[in-house]
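User: Before I run my own analysis I want an independent prediction to cross-check against. Here's the chain; please return only the structure tokens and, at the end, one sentence I can use as a sanity check.
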Amino acid sequence: MKYWFSGMLGMALIVAVPACTDEHFDVQGGSEGDPLSNATLTLWQQLESKPDLSKFASIVERTPVFKDETHPIKGYTFKDVLNSNQVLTVFAPSNEAFTDAEMMEYENLLATRPYDVYLRLVGNHIATYNYVASGTGVEDITMINNKKATFDRANHKLKDLTLTQYNIPATNGTLHTLNAQSSFAYNIYEYLRKHRDDYPELNRWLTAHDTIRFNPSASAEAGANPETGEPIYVDSVYYRENSLYYGSYYRSGEDWEMLHKGLNANMEAEDSLWAFVLPSNAAWLAMKTKMDPWYKYAPEYLDMTQLDGTNNTTSETEAKKTNIRTIPDTIWKDAIDMDLVSPLSFNIRRQPRTSTHQGVWSAEEFQATQMAKMFNNRADTFTVAERVKTTEDSEDVKSLLFGTGEPVEVSNGLIYPVNSWNFYDTYGAQDVEVKVNAYNSIYQRGRYNLSTADQKNTKEYTYVGQYEQKAFNNATSKLAKKHGSVSENYFYYICKDDGESQSSITLKLKDWERDHQIMSNIDYEIGLVLVPNFYRFGTDNYYDQVYGEYNPDDLPIEEYDPDGSILKQYFRTDSIQVDFSWINLSGKEQKTTTKAARFFCCYNGENVDTVWVHHDKATENGVINFPASYKNLRYAYPTITITALKNNDTKKRGHVSYFGIDRVILRAKKD
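Assistant: Structure tokens:
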């Protein structure tokens, strides 16, 4: 059985080099244009026959072929590869290219870390396909360690090295010789793996996402097993992929489908240019300890998509039987680790332009320039105003994130070692903002897909309000200039069907836009961005025409609709009650049901305004603290219910239970 193995270039892209027939490749002629069919020796036989290449040949003969860096193929070395029908080009360093110290180092590595010998030397001098030094043109070729090299056919050069002998034909490719070793640089992945002992936590997470896969389409079959009918392969092609390079994905078969987040960047891509923040192991562990209280999960969560009828469930009682169970330890480990890793990579070429730089960034320009704004590969925005956890006075957000030390230059970018994890404000205790103008933020148990009759069945279905989305043009409205703008030109107007009862709306506490979720053991202040009732008439100047300057102390007894009819509605909303529903650490649903636990606020109805709620008769902003985390969970979230209370006393004072709402803000109190 023969094997060939490929690394990974690009996300889920197989760069396979099958050890099978030559028809897979653009096979070119040998020395003096002779076809390869005229050669009589394999690449290994040619290499072995030349005394001035004996040092390189000795290393090639003992370097194993690997599935990945920790899994060599027993009894199969690169001597076997060069003796196979795999079509390759070898650029062999002559004996003079190796000092005694270098040979000693390679001997030690063969005994301790033979993968490094493959990566730095053997794989760095063997190219996929067949390349002869004749004709014209300069091209980029790919070595079997996935490194890129320029090959100048006319001038007989590999990178900046001149070929000392060239176009030595073999039955399976071409041999060239060099009087020096081709330069090598680790990419980000390779650097991290090389320094695994210095960064064990990050490498543990990196290794957990590596998968070795067999590529049957690139492997050579030699018939079938007569007993099973399964193909028998004489040349087997494997490749490695790392799911950490994805942006976001869900693992199939999980009891609880948690969103798994990665770097959204391939740290092995040699044609990319990344900046990677590398926190020390001490920094990693310190931040993990700090984040631990925020990731306390319950053993069981309600599947809220079942309860709100998204999956066509028509009975709340039945829906509550479809709880999805979690495994707290597994969720905890995955959630914290991926939130520590996922913000660390940046695309250098795509960073924002500055006043002094309007083009695509190079590594040198990026390294030398201060930046007020940056984006990582997950599209998170970092600015000094929304800065990381620091008290340093700086206009350079890059120094706040990457530290002030010199980066390590690698083949596909820059690595910035740091002694602290500096993404606190973005991936730490997060604010949660719910935009009510998005209908997917509204939560109604049992409401979806129901008939009109069923919707009125409040005993079985907990529908408690009527919601109407209102368009509002901030740019053209006189009201907006005078009384404030709403988010994205929409808000929701909440009014009970009968026009008399208390109006209420229940919202999903999940920040869909920024992917922020409620976390455990964080004190959240609660803000409601409320909209005046008269905004429901839209963006014209109707209000000013009827009433002139608005005086909140001079409430009109009657309000006129644009068609002249009288509406028994008033402007001011008062006595707003706020309730929450969540899961406790036992997996049970819990609600604010007493007046002491509930929150209240008053709103004068004059402007678009953020009102911070408080407990009954309290003067300070109230806070809510959730015992169980919802971080990264797909189907679970707590809810908030906002009710405009109404009684005879408030009606006499001109207050109504209709209200407009733009956003809900849960502001995390930070250290």
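Sanity check: The chain has a mean pLDDT of 79.
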